[in-house]
Amino acid sequence: MPRSSADPPKTAGQVNVYWRRRVIALAAGLGMLALVTWTVNGALGGGPTRQATDLSQTTRQHSAQRSSPPASATPGSTAGATPSSAATPTPSPSSSAKRHPAGKRGRKTAAARVTGACPHADLVLSLFSARYSYQVHTRPQFSVDVVSTAHGRCTADLGGAHLHIVIQAGGKHQVWDSADCAGAAARATTLARGVPAAVQITWNRKTSAPGCRAPHRAVRPGTYTATAYSGKLSSRSMTFVLKGP
């Protein structure tokens, strides 16, 4: 029905209410539009991001599986061997022999070579006895050790005329010399450095004279000293006792 010109005009309050409703409706429409836009953007933008994240995690898992050793490999297995130990060359006996052609055999040959007579200055004499007291009718027995300090090997005459024992009564009066009746036969002995050569000598408890001249008298019980000699070399003297009946 058309509005007639006779309708009364609207008041100012009615106009304000009308525009207020318009503004509220417009704001609500804009809010709904913004909400829809944000939802659409989130759905469109979140999908690729999540897919990219999942793809990155899957790639890292595959890389970790490739770099880690198999579960069956143990630390002591061959899979843990380092390349340096496998690549280290082992010298062959032939190469060592080329660097040292002589080797131990050459040193033994040089040591076995005899240089000649041992210098007296390189000889050391030591006198020993199994006991220091001898009962009646028991003959004293002595051992003379000869040691060379010279390099290599050398020879020494250990015959009775060169290596002998002198016995004195009371340390002053000579009563016996093993060289008096030993003869002049030589006894060439090869000596190695530091290795002693032992010579056994026994005393018959009688006196002696050069050339083994008689008489040979039995000595009295008492205290005696014995010393070993080889030329101008001598050992330390030792004291022993001969007991009587």
Q: Care to describe what's here?
A:
The chain is α+β, with helices and mostly antiparallel strands and 245 residues long. It contains four helices and twelve strands. It folds into two domains: 13-63; 114-242, Immunoglobulins (Immunoglobulin-like). Strands 3, 6, 7, 10, 11 and 12 form a six-stranded mixed sheet that branches. Strands 1-5-8 form a three-stranded mixed sheet, with no helix packed on it. Strands 2-4-9 form a three-stranded antiparallel sheet, with no helix packed on it. 10% of the residues are buried.
**Main beta sheet:** 6 strands, mixed
**What is the first-to-last residue Cα distance?**
181 Å
Number of strands: 12
State the helix count.
Answer: 4
Helix content: 25-40%
Tell me, briefly, the overall form: rod-shaped
Rg computed from alpha carbons, rounded to a whole number of angstroms: 60 Å
Mean pLDDT: 76
Count of domain modules: 2
Q: List the helices and strands in order.
A: HHHHEEEEEEEEEEEE
Query: What fraction of residues sit in β-strands?
Result: 25-35%
In terms of quaternary structure, what is this?
single chain
CATH topology of the largest domain: Immunoglobulin-like
What is the CATH level 1 assignment of the largest domain?
Mainly Beta
Which spans have pLDDT < 50 for at least 5 consecutive residues? 1-6, 46-53, 67-102
Summarize the structure.
This protein is α+β, with helices and mostly antiparallel strands. The chain has 4 helices and 12 strands.
What distinguishing features does this structure have?
245 residues, alpha+beta, Immunoglobulin-like, 2 domains, six-stranded mixed sheet, three-stranded mixed sheet, 32% helix, rod-shaped, disordered N terminus
